[in-house]
Amino acid sequence: MQFITDTSSKDPPWLRRVLTGVALLFLGAFILLPLASVFTAALEKGVAVYTASFTEADALAALKLTLLVAAITVPANVVFGIAAAWAITKFDFKGKSLLVTLIDLPFAVSPVIAGLSFVLVFGLHGWLTPEMQTELLAPLAKIARSGADAGAVGEWFLDGIANWLEDPKIIFATPGIVLATIFVTFPFVARELIPLMNQQGRDEELAALTLGASGWQVFRRVTLPNIKWGLFYGIILANARAMGEFGAVSVVSGHIRGETNTLPLHVEILYNEYQSTAAFACASLLALLAIVTLVLKSIVEWHFNNVKRAAALNTKQKFQ
Amino acid sequence: MAFKLKQKSVLPGFNLSFGITIFYASLIVLIPLAAVFLRASGLSFSEFVAAAFSERVLASYKVTFLTAFAGAATNAFFGLILAWVLTRYRFPGHRVADALVDLPFALPTAVAGISLTAIYSKNGWVGEWLDKAFGLQVAYSELGIYVALTFIGLPFVVRTLQPVIEELEPEMEEAATTLGASRWQTLYKVVFPQLLPALLTGFSLAFSRALGEYGSVVFISGNMPMRTEITPLLIITKLHQYQYKEATAVAAVMLVASFILLLIINLLQRWAERRTK
User: Fold this and answer.
1) Do B100 and A32 lie within an 8 Å CB cutoff?
2) Which of A112, A155, A231, B16 is 20 to 30 A removed from A53 (C-alpha atoms)?
């Protein structure tokens, strides 16, 4: 840190060297080595084999499902995260700390147990068995079917929805994978936004209201610009976890090749079939995702630090 | 007097945002987790004990808790050094090193699992050397689980400590030096006590994560019942054998352990906050 100029609070050079050496060695052995090994194992048999591994049909289907799951879970958690942060930071109500703890809960629960809990609710012997689901969704299915038959706009889309509603599958199908993924990524956005919006307080929103802005305008023009970086940060983390989740998804997926396999599950199957190169090739795609995530994360943190430094400079100038 | 949930506020949107939050949290978190406990409570006492505390399950608790504890302790030690080095020192590649700490958060656990297995198996980069030099077999043993759980838990300790180290007041260290303390005494008696709450919080977070970890462990552990079978894997095995009751009973025990840890973490965080104020 720049502000430590007095030598009295500095470590002697030998200690610096020893500690830095230990830290970097640990980081290298435990973090860098696994990352490097993914790419070397993937490229072991040349580039042609490498690219063939993830352009093959099952791998592409897995990639598509992974992208679809992330495309549903991340926006869902953004809506929830903003709603939760708004309720928690802009109002005072009873049981607030309980609600905050509840939001943190998924981080403390094993992903495997998360998957199991959805099986217990929606599975064959669950609270809401597939027959009950069909019965419950029958009226909705009828509406969607009549819409599709009438040739409304987006007929294929309505048709698809109607098909699903008439024979709803949650466990061992995409909806179960989506639910389990939402569970494990549940806290990310809300946890980024709550401390940020707490710190920003309510004054700016109140001022906007006084000036005649509507509630929606206040959110869009005042709150959103203030939280956009924090929101982005939460989205990056939630997205990385959504695309990479393994344990929770493994329980609810059913492992049907080309249908309910996400990319991480596909890696597992290939690995267990001793197709090591193909497994590492698909794994390298996920490792690339991790690297992109880290880079984006660093950019956001760098931005945050600049904002902090600018704020500190501002107050300093005011006092001078 | 009528029950009032919230204090008066002129800001709009409470009902909408609160409604969405409660609905979503209930659907995704509360109801499913309640299902685990309610299903488990449907078992008779002897059924529950037979399912959740059979010999094989007890062995899985033992290996899970021991390796998670060892992994978290390793992270507490090296994480403290890493956090100190990354916040206090500047060196070439500092930025990259700092970003890399988060890799276990960003890298899918299955990828971590197969790459660690590749490195630590008998013909892997590190495994070959460990085998020849010490006769140590890491992959497919308890040591492998420990390695995977150490990998997974590292960011928790470092990221909990870093902001606390940044906020340390240099005056404290200067005062200690002025009063004649050696640098070692200052670190040990002035700096370390201030970091202790955050260090314990980071340790508990890493421990809690390690208890539930599945993806990175299944590949490296070898999954031998009674020896290297972790509890999350045992739950999945029971599910695949359609032993829903047994799986639920074990899950309920692990959930209780998680909740106790969450409570401890909350208390530790409160302690840490009081320290800094």
Assistant:
1) yes
2) A112
